[in-house]
Design a protein that fits this description.
The protein is an alpha+beta fold and about 150 residues long. The protein is about 20% helix and about 35% strand. The chain has three helices and ten strands, in the order ββααββαββββββ. The strands form four sheets. The chain has a three-stranded antiparallel sheet with strand order 2-4-3. A three-stranded antiparallel sheet has the order 6-7-8, with no helix packed on it. It has a two-stranded parallel ribbon with strand order 1-5. A hairpin with a 4-residue loop joins strand 7 and strand 8. The protein is elongated and about 55 Å long. The protein starts with a strand and ends with a strand. The mean pLDDT is about 90.
């Protein structure tokens, strides 16, 4: 813990942004949210601060399939996420898209390259691709395939 970390995002204004149906939890995602919270994550905590409506789903069935879903205020949720990220002294947040991982002859990570030519030296990388694998990303007139 306490390592300096860089978070690259495609759009700084969309950090913590949710889709048109801004919900946290549900039959599939509620387990993930609980696991994140158990490891110190903020997804469920921010949902608790910004929810408009909460409901236990599948209540007419057995407890094994019950799940909590919270509909959140998407702007407030995004703002709260940004505040927490901005307050983390060991975290630098920048716009960028990783399109290359540099590895040396000993298979050790040396850094990452970005779509627009940036390079960041590092010894480890965590990629979170979201749900858009196989899609096309447009930035202005530049087109790139989402891996």
């Amino acid at each position: 813990m306490g390592a300096s970390t860089l978070l690259l995002t495609l759009n700084l204004d969309k950090i913590g942004w949710q889709p048109c149906n801004p919900s946290i939890g549900g039959p599939a995602k509620s387990t993930l949210v609980q696991e994140l919270d158990a490891m110190g994550g903020i997804m469920g905590k921010i949902a608790d601060r910004t929810y408009l409506h909460k409901k236990i789903l599948n209540i007419s069935k057995g407890p094994a399939v019950w799940s909590l879903r919270a509909q959140t205020d998407k702007r407030e949720y995004s703002d709260e996420i940004k505040k927490i990220l901005d307050g983390n002294l060991n975290l630098t947040v920048k716009e960028g898209m990783v399109n290359e991982i540099y590895i040396d002859s000993k298979n050790q990570i040396k850094g990452i390259g970005t779509f627009f030519g940036g390079f960041y030296q590092c010894t480890s990388v965590v990629l979170t691709t979201g749900t858009f694998l196989g899609g096309i990303i447009w930035i202005g007139s530049k087109k790139n395939i989402s891996w």
